[in-house]
């Protein structure tokens, strides 16, 4: 129908309103992974889905403008390396994966040893990885039609 | 009893993998098998009237379900995600090359 | 507790993972860095694995508590003599294959991704070998398998994609069977630590569930290790990968994920000695059927892949005998098979690199143009066929003697028959590829680059000297102590809990 890529006006408007909320919710789940259900993986999936949501509604160019493929790939590797370096930091305390930071106050944000930082790195890895997977499957489908 | 239900679902998945000829249906069969196993694991950890194993303020750690199978399932789900993503990507590439999802027609390799 | 010896254990898993992601991060920017990082990483791991033999032998097995949590609660890594034996095989062959692939993988684009997946696969295999936790075993198994699915499909041509899809379906089903077995075992013993599990299983003896679980594991690990009724994905998957990966898959992956995991679970955890006759029968069948199918093949790598099935059958026959001599033969054959099968796949890769074809009918007379590939493949062929001075002869001899000693001469006869058939099929390979007349279109080919030659010569030397492992002074620390771990499988839990500090 219309020239521009993506779905109808209704979908686009709703997407514009909700996409930020979904992203924020994903970040919340990541940061509170050690206090409530959720964590790095679940939050990372939600973050990735917010970008996929954008891709579905506006076409993949709009999503790739927010976060391009090389950037996502680099972020993914950084997430993985961060996780392993947290594990290596544990060697300072004598063991691989040893909890180097203190427990902190229960039920506050900075508590539960290194779990918070592990969650952040996992969410980077999972979010960017899942986004890359979905984008590359979508790109492969597009090439076939040409 | 519910264990047998999980086993039946597992068998349904296995049937789909063995008997179906469409690649996408095979992938779905593998996912069904996986979810049957996930349910089985969670059932292993369940106890009558237990509550979710989350530490909350002002609540004693008492009568909670076994959290370990849930952690295992989370890992198994992640692995399943990776496998499924790879399988779907391969299926898409095979469709590009052969133009079909029917595995009886995809036969460049013999024996 | 912070000394070097303990810290070494998690490095076997963590180092390849780190380098793999570093390559993904840096490889696109600096071209040469991936070669250097990968070679360095595998070299360090190889040295560490040799160092580990010395440490473990002067000592009880090393137990590493990840994160400082004590074993029944936390995950522990166990390094005993059997793990050491496997680690040495895996890491030394990986080093040689890495040197080989520096030149070979120039033909493909995306070399960085190759190295990243390669190291992930290595991390998975090392993880399976050192872990002392049942679920951790499954996780590493899947890491190694997923990386290998990707590597089989690396060329992204039609055959490769198809083979990879087949391999992936079978691998996923195997993984799910293993997961089901682990779930049932967890509900039965309410623990995941292998040593703890072994203790509980031996206390609560006589349950039918253990039999069911053993069968599930037999199917799962048998699928991963290409044992007879589950073998048919292997001849598609292994030849489709690039040659270094075929060498890794055939030489190491089916052994680390299939044979080693089966041995570990059956002997150390479940103590399922009642299933050993089944292993023997399956081993003999795969030995004979694999070799019969191999004789009729005309594709170089496909022929080698069928021989892998047959040789895994030998290993299983040896292990299934259950006598110390049989187990020793099985483990020794495992070592030898990794060496000569990797060498043969590297040879086939060299032929493919130089001529561009793998069809035996099109080749011929390459001996004049490629002397080093020809002579190393001669060594490997004689080794796999079991001719006297080479290592394959000694391990087959031990297996056959063990069969006779255990009062099962029929199995011995089948083993001899399979060996003769192997000799026949490799004479065919030598005749069609390296001897005979040089075809007109191959007049201009040259020997492969230096790094490839170097790794082939290294493996050929190991094949030549491998028989020395039987000398008690050499084998006492390496082979014999690994055999002791299996024969004392019932003691596993006790040993682990004793050496825990």
Radius of gyration of chain A from CA coordinates = 18 Å
Question: Which strand order does the major sheet of chain C show?
Answer: 1-2
Structural class call of chain A reads: mainly alpha
The string of secondary-structure elements of chain A, in order, is HHHHH
Q: How would you classify the helix and strand content of chain C by structural class?
A: mainly alpha
Q: How many H/I helical runs of chain C?
A: 19
Count of helical regions of chain A: 5
H/E element string of chain C? HHEEHHHHHHHHHHHHHHHHH
Total number of strands of chain A = 0
Radius of gyration of chain C: 22 Å
Uncertain segments of chain C are none
Oligomer classification: heterotrimer
Q: Average pLDDT across residues of chain C?
A: 84
How many beta strands in the DSSP annotation of chain C?
2
Proportion of β residues of chain C? under 5%
The biggest sheet of chain A, with number of strands, parallel, antiparallel or mixed sense and barrel status, is: none
The end-to-end distance of chain C, rounded to whole angstroms, is 9 Å
Q: Which pair has the most extensive contact? A: B-C, 33 and 32 residues
The proportion of residues forming helix of chain C, as a percent range, comes to: over 70%
Q: What's the gist of this structure?
A:
The complex is a heterotrimer of chains A (146), B (111) and C (501). Chain A has 146 residues and is mainly α. Chain A has 5 helices and no strands.
């Amino acid at each position: 129908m219309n020239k521009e890529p993506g779905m109808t006006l209704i979908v686009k408007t709703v997407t514009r309103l909700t996409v930020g909320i979904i992203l924020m919710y994903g970040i919340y789940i990541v940061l509170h992974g050690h206090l409530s259900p959720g964590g790095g993986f679940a939050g990372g999936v939600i973050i990735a889905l917010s970008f996929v949501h954008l891709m579905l509604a506006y076409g993949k160019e709009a999503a790739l403008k927010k976060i391009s493929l090389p950037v996502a790939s680099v972020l993914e590797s950084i997430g993985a390396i961060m996780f392993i370096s947290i594990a290596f930091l544990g060697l300072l305390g004598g063991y691989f994966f040893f909890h180097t930071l203190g427990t902190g106050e229960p039920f506050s944000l900075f508590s539960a040893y290194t779990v918070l930082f592990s969650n952040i790195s996992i969410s980077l890895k999972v979010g960017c990885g899942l986004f890359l997977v979905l984008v590359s499957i979508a790109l492969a489908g597009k090439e076939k039609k040409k | 009893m519910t264990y047998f239900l999980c086993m039946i679902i597992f068998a349904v998945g296995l049937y789909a993998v063995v008997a179906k000829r469409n690649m996408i249906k095979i992938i779905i069969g593998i996912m069904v098998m996986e979810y049957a196993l996930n349910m089985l694991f969670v059932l292993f950890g369940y106890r009558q009237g237990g509550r979710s194993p989350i530490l909350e303020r002002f609540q004693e750690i008492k009568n909670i379900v076994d959290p370990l199978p849930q952690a295992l399932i989370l890992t198994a789900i992640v692995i399943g995600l990776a496998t499924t993503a790879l399988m779907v990507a391969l299926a898409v590439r095979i469709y590009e090359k052969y133009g079909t999802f029917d595995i009886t027609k995809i036969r460049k390799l013999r024996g | 507790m912070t000394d070097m010896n303990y810290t070494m254990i998690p490095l076997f898993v963590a180092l390849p993972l780190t380098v793999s992601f570093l390559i993904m991060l840096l490889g696109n920017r600096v071209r040469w860095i991936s070669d250097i990082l990968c070679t360095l990483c595998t070299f360090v791991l190889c040295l560490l694995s040799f160092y580990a033999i010395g440490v473990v032998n002067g000592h009880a097995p090393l137990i590493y508590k990840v994160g400082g949590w004590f074993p029944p609660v936390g995950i522990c890594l166990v390094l005993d003599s059997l793990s050491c034996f496997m680690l040495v095989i895996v890491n030394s062959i990986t080093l040689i294959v890495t040197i080989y692939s520096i030149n070979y993988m120039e033909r493909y684009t995306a070399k960085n991704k190759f190295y990243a997946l390669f190291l992930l696969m290595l991390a998975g295999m090392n993880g399976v070998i050192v872990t002392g936790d049942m679920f951790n075993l499954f996780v590493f198994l899947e890491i190694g398998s997923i990386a290998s699915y990707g590597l089989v499909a690396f060329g992204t041509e039609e055959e490769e994609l198809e083979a990879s899809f087949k391999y992936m379906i079978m691998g996923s089903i195997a993984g799910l069977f293993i997961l089901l077995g682990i779930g049932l075992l967890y509900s039965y013993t309410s623990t995941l630590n292998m040593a703890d599990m072994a203790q509980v299983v031996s206390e609560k003896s006589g349950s039918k569930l253990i039999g069911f679980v053993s069968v599930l594991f037999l199917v799962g690990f048998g699928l991963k290790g290409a044992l007879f009724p589950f073998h048919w994905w292997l001849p598609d998957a292994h030849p489709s990968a690039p040659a270094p990966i075929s060498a890794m898959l055939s030489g190491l992956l089916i052994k680390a994920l299939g044979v080693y995991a089966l041995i570990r679970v059956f002997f150390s955890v479940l103590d399922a000695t009642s299933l050993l006759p089944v292993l023997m029968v399956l081993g003999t069948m795969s030995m004979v059927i694999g070799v019969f199918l191999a004789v009729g093949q005309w594709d170089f790598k496909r022929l080698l892949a069928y021989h892998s099935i047959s040789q895994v059958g030998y290993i299983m026959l040896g292990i299934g005998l259950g006598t110390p001599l049989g187990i020793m033969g099985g483990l020794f054959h495992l070592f030898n098979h990794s060496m000569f099968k990797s060498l043969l796949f590297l040879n086939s890769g060299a032929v493919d690199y130089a001529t561009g074809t793998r069809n035996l009918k099109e080749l011929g007379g390459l001996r004049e143009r490629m002397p080093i590939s020809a002579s190393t493949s001669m060594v490997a062929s004689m080794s796999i066929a079991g001719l006297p001075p080479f290592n394959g002869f000694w391990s087959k001899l031990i297996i056959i003697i063990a069969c006779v000693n255990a009062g099962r001469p029929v199995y011995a006869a089948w083993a001899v028959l399979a060996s003769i058939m192997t000799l026949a099929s490799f004479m065919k390979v030598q005749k069609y590829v390296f001897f005979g007349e040089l075809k007109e279109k191959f007049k201009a080919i040259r020997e492969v680059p230096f790094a490839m030659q170097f790794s082939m010569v290294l493996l050929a030397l190991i094949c030549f000297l491998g028989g020395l492992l039987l000398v008690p002074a050499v084998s006492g620390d390496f082979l014999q102590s690994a055999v002791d771990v299996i024969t004392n499988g019932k003691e596993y839990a006790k040993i682990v809990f004793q050496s825990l500090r």
